[in-house]
Design a protein that fits this description.
With about 230 residues, the chain is α+β, with helices and mostly antiparallel strands. It folds into two domains: about 5-50 and about 60-80, no CATH class; about 85-210, 60s Ribosomal Protein L30, Chain: A. It has eight helices and four strands. The chain has a four-stranded mixed sheet. Helix 7 (about 150-160) links the parallel strand 2 and strand 3 (about 170-175). It is globular, with a radius of gyration of 22 Å.
Amino acid sequence: MGYGGKTVERQRARELRARAWTLLEIAEELGVSKSSVSIWTRDVEFVPKPRNRGHREHAPHPLHLKKLAELERCRVDADVAIGEVSERDMLMFCLALYAGEGSKSDGALKFANSDERLVRIFLTWLRSEFEIDERRLRVNLYLHADLDLDAAIRHWEHVTKIPRAQFTKPYRAVADLTRRRNRHVHGCATVCYSCRTIHRRVMAMIEAISSPKSFRDSSAGRASDC
């Protein structure tokens, strides 16, 4: 039907957006996709609702509200710009992830991160891109000694879909509370898959992307946003 066939939903979306409803809230209310809502409402001015942080004695600072509004506009623009993610998009994204966070030593793929979203994405890609033996997957945790190891293992077992029996002995770091306060409660997970051939294929693809012949100067003539 296209966007033009949903004039009632589009108008309602714009009304709700002006009242500071989030994109997800509007999509669920109208039964449409979040991407449709972002396109319909990208030019609607609104003041974001501050996050609920309990009782506040003072109203949010105008600069804070301005920051929230800019962040939300960036999210809307990002939804429109990215759109649907293709298989090639995912290939390039995961190769870039591995180039930054993966082991380059020959013999095994090792991807380490504390962000469960990135670990899940990488494993989903690995499982779909290559024929792997699930029994050869391993997870090693880096976790401060004063944090709950069992809870961390349960968390990463759920994220990775790798059974606890395939988790290796964790590294329990001694916490120095005087130097760092914001610690990852579930630690950092390193996913390992021992296969020299697959590791070499991944590194070859990264090399193909990063070779000089793969680049073009796309920045010429682009105005700065800052």
